[in-house]
Amino acid sequence: MGEEYEDEELEEIKRRKLAEMRKRLEEEKARRAQIEAALRQILTPEARERLSNLRLVRPELAQALEEQLINLARSGRVKIPITDDFLKRLLSEIYEQTHRDTRIEIRRK
């Protein structure tokens, strides 16, 4: 009887965890759909394609950039639609700010 009770309890825990994971997944899908809808409104197709390519290579940078672009558009600080050229300049500026030149210097005595 004790083992049967433990099995039922374990199954209940599994069901709750699964339901929680499904709920989180649905929330993430809904959030992603909202972001995509906003990006469709503020980016040209070429700029959206560039952002999609960036998302494949550097997902954390793409996510931060998406949020920043949406905030800039909502506050009216950028001209809409955001073009591919503007996005390239923005990415270039980000690269310049974050890129560090690594030099290895060998000194011989």
UniProtKB/TrEMBL annotation:
Keywords: Coiled coil, DNA-binding. InterPro entries: DNA_bind_arc, PDCD5-like, PDCD5-like_sf. It holds the Pfam family dsDNA_bind. It comes from the Archaea. Residues 8-38 form a coiled coil. Gene3D superfamilies: PDCD5-like. This is DNA-binding protein ENM60_00300. The lineage of its organism: Archaea, Thermoproteota, Thermoprotei, Desulfurococcales, Desulfurococcaceae.
